[in-house]
Amino acid sequence: MFRNKFIFVLIILLIVIIGFFVFTNIQNTTPSQPKISLSEEEWDFGKIKEDEKPAHIFTIVNTGGEELIISRVRAACGCTATMLSSDHILPGKQAELKTTFNPVGYEGIIKKSIYIESNDPELSKVKIDIIAEVETIPAPKAFLSNSQWDFGLISQGDFPEFTFTVENKGELELVMRTRVN
Fold first, then answer.
1. How do residues 151-162 score in pLDDT, each as one tens digit?
2. How much is the pTM?
3. Which of 79, 122, 130, 146 is the most buried (most CB within 10 A)?
């Protein structure tokens, strides 16, 4: 009986010791590969005017054990400009990605994406979204009844005439000046 208890205690003690060493080794080993981590995956600028150019700085952190290399940052639209402070990020360090949005020509809620490619083997491509609600600046907006006219065959000395309608679909008064040569 005493021998069985001794073997049982010995086995339990052996399991605890082995478990302790395995657990300690797992905790002490730092990842030997780069790992990308973002401060945010989405940023909302809120309500902005069409003539504003809001900017936001995203932080990219390397939480891995090797150097993180950013190979490409690409905005899905020419309305979004990006500037990366460093494309090589050492373990535990960070870089800043400044993003500027130009809302000219947009109105309403807009969502644009930015893609970051790196040497992170688990997450080689990440996406950041920026959102804004663009309020248009009041302005006149001229629309022509036709955008194309066919004058047919014109000879020298002919003075063709045509009629078109201009409509203001804007919020402010449209002022037109004519000039005849």
1. 778 888 887 777
2. 0.64
3. 130
